[in-house]
Write a sequence for this structure.
């Protein structure tokens, strides 16, 4: 199964992708996580991507596409979280899959408003070691400031400051929202009300994958 999770930053794509990938044995490919790792290790990709990410802008398509080509598995199913984010990326993905006789099964749209995004991202805490995600109010760690999974220090991402959050939402509206029509025309799109609780969204997601609507 090949799934694409589409939606603004903070809509809960990563949270649901982590759950679902475990349950269904699918690889979770988050371009945001891969880029942050590249920045941390100061690889050539990381050095090029860093400034775009800090400004809340999209990293150029050419860099993202070579990254995806490197990590996309040919044998197993996977969830793409945060990719594609432009029409050019979506077309390149379609071509890449077609070359291997594959196609996307479903595109799940995580539908939320800007205010929900700001509330979620300004309270998001991320583990500096393993990347596990928490929320100050909605999903707090057992011990303040410490990751439940690995004991690492929890931090606020640099791009989770209100000004950058609003910029990222604008970038989503301008460059990523057009993908909704792109996938609707291809009959792949399933829209979820992502303002519900984590458990409720999970339930809807499981139904959507099962029924296809
Ligand atoms: P995305 O991957 O789309 O950027 P995340 O999964 O990282 O979003 O979620 C953003 C923040 O919102 C995190 O702090 C997460 O714990 C929290 N969160 C995710 N889903 C929900 C939800 N359904 N209700 C409340 N908070 C949520
Ligand atoms: P995310 O963790 O998905 O919120 O992504 C964090 C940042 O990484 C974004 O604000 C972009 O700068 C960059 N990024 C992640 N995925 C992509 C993509 N598919 N295309 C371009 N930039 C991306």
């Amino acid at each position: 199964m090949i799934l694409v999770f589409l939606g603004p930053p903070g809509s809960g794509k990563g949270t649901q992708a982590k759950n679902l990938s475990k349950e269904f044995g699918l690889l979770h490919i988050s371009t945001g996580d891969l880029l942050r790792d590249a920045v941390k290790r100061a690889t050539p990709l990381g050095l090029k991507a860093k400034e775009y990410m800090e400004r809340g802008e999209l990293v150029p398509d050419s860099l993202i596409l070579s990254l995806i080509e490197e990590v996309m598995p040919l044998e197993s199913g996977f969830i793409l979280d945060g990719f594609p984010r432009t029409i050019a990326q979506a077309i390149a993905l379609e071509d890449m899959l077609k070359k291997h006789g594959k196609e996307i099964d479903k595109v799940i749209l995580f539908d939320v408003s800007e205010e929900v995004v700001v509330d979620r991202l300004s309270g998001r805490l991320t583990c500096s070691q393993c990347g596990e995600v928490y929320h100050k109010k909605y999903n707090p760690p057992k011990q303040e400031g410490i990751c439940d999974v690995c004991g690492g220090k929890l931090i606020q991402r640099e791009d989770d400051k209100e000004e950058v959050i609003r910029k990222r939402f604008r970038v989503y509206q301008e460059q990523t929202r057009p993908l909704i029509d792109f996938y609707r025309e291809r009959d792949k799109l399933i829209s979820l009300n992502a303002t519900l609780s984590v458990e409720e969204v999970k339930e809807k997601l499981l139904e959507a994958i099962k029924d296809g609507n």
About this structure: The mean pLDDT is 95.
